[in-house]
Specification:
Blueprint (H helix, E strand, L loop, with lengths): L10 H23 L13 H18 L4 H23 L4 E6 L2 E6 L9 H13 L3 H7 L14 H14 L6 H9 L8 H4 L2 H23 L4 H24 L12 H11 L12 H4 L18
Antiparallel strand pairs: 1-2
Helix pairs in contact: 1-2, 2-3, 3-4, 4-5, 4-6, 4-11, 6-7, 6-9, 9-10
């Protein structure tokens, strides 16, 4: 299988796109260092949440441009830190929180946020904390409660995943069996008014992302055998690939890599030695190599292009 986007152009095209991502990263670093970011314009919104998604773009093009793995992981490190800071600011509104970009460090005030505080964003934070084996962050993320979220428009399938993850984090106090039973009763075809306007895309995403990811989650933490785990992971990756291709043809935004599966894959690998074969949408080195082994990208002008 080829990647629908990563195998579409010559290497020099990706190198130029990557150069733009690095330029953006150095610009953000300079802006933070010189106090030029207007955080005051984003009350209730989250600059960290928005920027976290931009760091993922840097990772994508580092991979497509065939940059060193440690350089691609540098972007993931920034994504994870910014995504965590986003939730810290919301969960601890009376505290000050450090936001860093390598040697540049600033302090961000806590604030009750109204954007990016939802079940899937929280699950994503937990999955990445698992990927980095960051048990300290998992401990405080576990304090996040349903009451902290704006529940308007939250889909049943997203709440089902949220409740399963919560039960897995603290099985002594939460009923995992009940959470799984509730998940089994979810009707994914039930749409909110907003979702009904793009019903086909929403249903495709639920069938191709949400359901397969929950199957993988349960496979890992309910201790299924290696063959079953691998089948579910490969099925999830193939469905993700099909969805990515479909959304790309329709001109709709969609992730280039199945990064929400990295944490689950790393837990299965570190705990049981289970390994997923290399896949265009989940490079195996994301599972086997040290995520904290990072190298900052060079100055944009020094990035080689063909």
């Amino acid at each position: 299988m080829k990647h629908h986007y990563g195998d579409s152009y010559e290497l020099d095209v990706y190198q130029e796109f990557y150069q733009q991502q690095v330029c953006s990263a150095y610009f953000i670093k300079s802006a933070l260092q010189n106090g030029q970011v207007r955080f005051d314009l984003m009350s209730g919104d989250s600059w960290e949440y928005q920027e976290a998604n931009q760091w993922i773009n840097g990772f994508d093009f580092a991979v497509f441009a065939k940059r060193p793995h440690s350089e691609a992981r540098w972007f993931l490190d920034k994504f994870y830190h910014y995504h965590l800071t986003h939730f810290k600011r919301h969960m601890f509104p009376n505290e000050q929180h450090e936001l860093r970009l390598d040697e540049v460090s600033i302090i961000r005030p806590g604030e009750r946020l109204s954007f990016g505080i939802d079940p899937i964003s929280w699950c994503r934070a937990v999955y990445w904390a698992l990927a980095y084996n960051d048990m300290q962050s998992i401990t405080w993320l576990d304090q996040f409660e349903e009451q902290s979220m704006d529940m308007s428009g939250v889909a049943q399938i997203h709440m089902a995943e949220f409740n399963i993850v919560k039960a897995i984090l603290n099985p002594q106090e939460r009923d995992l069996v009940a959470a799984i039973k509730a998940y089994m009763q979810v009707d994914i075809t039930v749409l909110s008014e907003l979702e009904s306007r793009v019903a086909d895309d929403v249903l495709l995403s639920r069938r191709s992302e949400n359901l397969p990811r929950i199957d993988c989650l349960l496979s890992v933490f309910c201790h299924e055998d290696e063959q079953t785990y691998q089948q579910k992971m490969l099925d999830a990756l193939d469905k993700f690939a099909q969805c990515a291709h479909t959304m790309d043809k329709a001109g709709e935004p969609f992730a280039y890599f199945a990064l929400d599966l990295v944490g689950l894959a790393r837990v299965a690998y570190s705990g049981k030695g289970y390994l997923v074969p290399d896949h265009p949408y989940l490079p195996q080195w994301l599972i086997t190599e040290d995520l904290t082994d990072i190298t900052p990208p060079p100055e944009p002008d020094s990035i080689p292009t063909l």
